[in-house]
Specification:
Layout: E1 2-4, E2 7-12, H1 19-29, H2 31-34, E3 38-43, E4 57-60, H3 69-78, E5 84-88, H4 93-99, H5 103-114, E6 119-122, H6 125-133, E7 142-144, H7 152-155, E8 166-170, H8 179-187, E9 195-199, H9 205-212, E10 218-222, H10 227-232, E11 236-239, H11 248-255, E12 259-262, H12 268-271, E13 277-278, H13 284-295, H14 310-325, E14 329-331
Parallel strand pairs: 2-3, 2-4, 4-5, 5-6, 6-7, 8-9, 8-11, 9-10, 11-12, 12-13
Antiparallel strand pairs: 1-14
């Protein structure tokens, strides 16, 4: 007798470079995860009908909206006997506070959508606490699995040496990331040796470049397919996000032995770790003061473990959840 690994299909409707696609790449390529299940990723069109699928478990990484709800209801009806999991990559307390004027209607949407699934996965403890506090997911349905990518390349980077003057901001150029606050704060610093390096692309690129105009210490690098090389060129990582379900950049910074300044909202209070400096006030003056204090102190406090167990914890959590929903079945092998 041998055991047949469950087939797990992951559905995603956003293939643009970012945290979700990188986490899915980790799921698909990890040899450790492959020992427990056969993971496959399928890209579908957003707000369109979903296909009929055959799998032992289906995992949604889809965006939930009123437009997508009919497709989810239809999909559940057509896969009534298949365990369905939804991973909530987007919605948080801070997102709702800043972006949702009709909160009761929004919460009704989430309760309806989440009820279609057998399990809902939050990507951080703060997000899970919000989901439970608002009554959006039953506690017995809710799991927490913090995202991860392959961190070996980050752990191999040497710690920054000498004066720490290269501040990095990594992510989509979107209002969510708070890079406008960071640029305004950095411009208040008088240190001619300090530099701010912004890595990413997005809708706010032109506006952010205009905001930085005239300060040659601020450099825009665009998107890079080599995140380890990006991290190698930075001393300090600044994460001034206005909302963030988890914050993969913070985890990578910890693994790379970089010090972190963060807004600490939502999942960043977890992903940035205990050694991060939290700047709770989202204004340029507060961030400028924190940057000045941070750069004047060396050596800076970093994660001594370099997020040593992140990948193993991720693999174990997914293996346990899949085993709960789709126990492995024995398959007779001919002698």
């Amino acid at each position: 007798m041998t055991q047949q690994r469950p087939r797990v299909l992951h559905l995603v409707d956003d293939a643009t470079p970012g945290g979700v696609t990188r986490v899915l790449d980790q799921i698909r390529s990890s040899l450790d995860m492959a020992r427990d299940a056969r993971h496959e990723v399928i890209t579908v069109q957003r707000n369109k009908g979903l296909p009929n699928l055959r799998a032992d478990v289906i995992v949604s990484h889809l965006s939930i909206s009123w437009r997508s709800l009919p497709a989810l209801i239809s999909f559940r009806a057509r896969h009534a006997s298949t365990p369905l999991i939804h991973v909530e990559h987007s919605y948080t307390h801070a997102f709702t506070a800043l972006n949702v004027p009709m909160k009761l209607r929004f919460f009704a949407l989430l309760r309806t959508a989440y009820a279609l699934f057998d399990k809902v996965v939050a990507v951080s403890q703060p997000q899970a606490a919000w989901l439970e506090r608002r009554g959006l997911v039953r506690p017995d349905m809710l799991h927490v699995i913090t995202p991860v990518v392959d961190l070996r390349g980050f752990r191999a980077l040497p710690a920054p040496a000498g004066p720490l003057r290269r501040i990095g901001a990594i992510g989509r150029l979107h209002s969510q990331k708070g890079f406008d606050i960071l640029i305004d704060a950095f411009r208040l610093l008088e240190d001619p040796q300090a530099s701010l390096h912004i890595h990413g692309t997005g809708a706010q690129e032109a506006a952010l470049k205009a905001r930085a105009a005239g300060d040659t210490r601020i450099v825009f690098h665009g998107h890079s397919d080599d995140p380890e090389a990006v991290m190698a060129g930075l001393d300090v990582i600044a994460i001034p996000s206005r909302w963030e379900a988890f914050g993969l950049v913070a985890l990578e910074a910890r693994a790379a032995g970089r010090s972190i300044l963060t807004s600490g909202v939502d999942g960043l209070s977890e992903s940035a770790g205990r050694t991060a400096r939290v700047v709770a006030d989202p204004c340029a003056d507060s961030w400028a003061a924190a940057l000045q204090l941070h750069l004047s102190r060396a050596p800076l406090t970093t994660d001594p473990t370099r997020a040593a167990t992140a990948e193993a914890d991720f693999t174990a959590a997914w293996a346990a959840l899949i085993a709960e929903l789709a126990p492995q079945t024995e398959m007779q092998i001919a002698a």
